[in-house]
Amino acid sequence: MDLIPSFSVDHTKIIPGIFESRVDTLGAETVTTFDVRLKRPNREPEIAPAAMHTMEHVVATYLRNHPEWKDKLIYWGPMGCLTGFYIIVKGRPAAADMYPIILEAFRYMSEYEGEVPGATPENCGKYLMHDLPMAKWEAERYVDYLTHADKSRIFEYPKTERLKVNGGREFFDS
Ligand SMILES: [Zn+2]
Fold first, then answer.
1. pLDDT digits (tens, 9 = 90+) for 84-95
2. Which CATH number fits domain 14-150: 3.10.20.310, 3.90.180.10, 1.10.286.20, 3.30.1360.80?
3. How many whole angstroms from 104 Cα to the centroid of ligand 1?
4. Which of 75, 98, 121, 168 is the most exposed, having the fewest neighbouring CB atoms within 10 Å of its CB?
5. Ligand 1 mean position to 52 CA, how many Å?
């Protein structure tokens, strides 16, 4: 079996940033998926589920109300490995084009005060599992990282050979 595209990058080489994950054509429309990576996979602790959940709610609400982005946003949601988020947008912007809105959204998250939007039993599948202070802390850390990071490294995955099976090793490697 081939790995799906988002698994086929060598995760031991990934650093935080904003990376194009896949481009899909649906009829006449193109949609682009980006990995919004906050943590180095397998090298630093993942984001706690409750903080992840709060960031999902607050950033989604921000993007879905944003005058420029609300009509372009298809999806915003957490990665199962808890090291980042996926954002799917209409069209084919480059990862660097996503930088201003991602920075803006996480800055908003880092300064957010008040009730977490949608954190009610009517609107959420686990409304008690939220952690606003940790979500703000993680967002502030990511904003700081994105602001100071080497821009030549945070929009493109390292050019390693793409993996095919079993972490790059053949299944029957002896
Ligand atoms: Zn929820």
1. 999 999 999 999
2. 3.30.1360.80
3. 22
4. 121
5. 10
